[in-house]
Amino acid sequence: MAITAVLLAALLATGWSSSIADAARRLAHAPGSRYAPLAIAIDVTILALLREAFAFPLSLYQGFLLERRYGLSLEPLESWLRDHGKAVGLSLILGIAGAEAIYLAVRLSPAWWWLLAAAAFVLATAGVARIAPVVLLPMFYRFTPLERESLRSRLESLSARAGTPVLGVYEWALGEKSRRANAALVGTGASRRIIISDTLLAEYSDDEIEVILAHEIAHHVHHDILVGIVAESFLLVAAFFAAAATLRAWGPPLGLESQADIAGLPLLLLVGGGVSLLATPIVHALSRRNERRADRYALALTGHAGAFISAMRRLGSQNMAEEQPSTMAVLLFHSHPPIEQRIEAARTFL
Predict the structure, then answer these.
(1) How far apart are CA 255 and CA 248, in angstroms?
(2) Which H helix or E strand runs over 44?
(3) Is 300 strand, coil or helix?
(4) Which of 26, 11, 25, 33 is nearest to 259 (CA)?
(5) Three-state SS across 149-210?
(6) Among positive and negative, which fits the CA dihedral 234, 236, 239, 245?
(7) Poorest-confidence range of 4-8, 67-71, 164-168?
(8) Which DSSP string corresponds to 70-109?
(9) pLDDT tens digits, residue range 227-269?
(10) Best CA proximity match to 126, nearest among 34, 25, 230, 282
(11) Tell me: the pLDDT tens digits for 196-221?
(12) pTM score above 0.85
């Protein structure tokens, strides 16, 4: 985050952002600050490549070297680079689409573009949540129908009892890349399906797997995904409003011709990222509340408090979760309550 912020600020302060925008417009044969989709795509691509050039060493350390040092990753460097390339490419496609939507909104309504752009981003967020298990996840992992008939029937029955029928239960080949264990109920509506990592299937009892999935089902029962999208909507509106106000105030001093000048994109990203960062403690606090509620639901639905406690201990150890994080770490980084707090709550539930 710091690398990205420093890079964006440097581009604005030095005037390089305007130079990049001018180059993009020349390549697209689109002079001036009028709406030019090809110039926008070129500008975003250059910015993304610059950011990747600065951030890649840290990504390599965090995503590959550190994971290998602690025995969490089994993935060879070639595979990691391939996955990283896919992620960068996917981010670039989404970034271009987002920038196109922003500057099209500016063209359609210079006064209210921030609201139109926020609405477009909300719709995109809902769409991604729906197609992710069908389109995005298979880009990085292999999924096959779960062959353990007894467990599959048990989990399908569990989801039916909770009122969240699923399309199917799939084994997630996480073990090809990591020693971590995980499970999820992904997708919405007709795309909803249960995925269970092969690492979880190999080492956890059926009771433990059932109570873990009951926790995931609880998020759908409580409409946490929908509530999250609504919360994200308010955050997007706030971020785009702040970006529009900042663009009006600081655009001329930075040499921007107008709101439609694509050289202002780093400023929009800086302000939007700043709003998101300020909201992070609130977002995490709401998420931790939802996770505690999901834990209680899972315990009530299955009655497997003992299995829940053993599963949490094993997951915490296997995934190397910090058992007693500091209060500041929880506020800033933890979307889930610390493992020991979840275990203590389960003991109280007993």
Answers:
(1) 12
(2) helix 37-60
(3) helix
(4) 33
(5) HHHHHHHHHHHHHCCCCCCCEEEECHHHCECCCCEEEECCHHHCEEEEEHHHHHHCCHHHHH
(6) negative
(7) 164-168
(8) TT-B---HHHHHHHHHHHHHHHHHHHHHHHHHHHHHHHH-
(9) 988 999 999 999 999 999 999 999 999 999 889 999 999 999 9
(10) 230
(11) 999 999 999 999 999 999 999 999 99
(12) yes
Residue burial 152-185, b: 16+ Cβ < 10 Å; e: rest: bebbbebbeebebebeebbbbebbebbbbbbbbb
Concatenate the DSSP letters of all residues of 206-265 into one string. Answer: HHHHHHHHHHHHHHHHTTHHHHHHHHHHHHHHHHHHHHHHHHHHHTTTTT--STT-GGGH
Helix (H, G, I), strand (E, B) or coil at 16: helix
Sole residue written with tokens 């840290």: 58
Length of the chain: 350
- Rounded to 5 degrees, φ, ψ at 144 are -135, 150
Q: Tell the residue number behind the tokens 């956890």, with chain if given.
A: 204
Q: How far apart, in whole angstroms, are the C-alpha atoms of residue 31 and residue 157? A: 62
Coil, helix or strand at residue 323: coil
Question: Do 59 and 4 meet the contact criterion of CB atoms below 8 Å apart?
Answer: no
**pLDDT above 70 for 33:** no
Measure CA 214 to chain center.
22
170 DSSP β-pair partners: 145, 195
- 52-66 per-position pLDDT tens digit: 999 999 999 999 999
Q: Among all chains, which residue has been given the structure tokens 């390089």?
A: 16
Torsion of CA 164, 168, 173, 175, to 10 degrees: 50
- 187 has pLDDT over 90: no
Under a CB-based contact definition with an 8 Å cutoff, are residues 277 and 22 in contact?
A: no
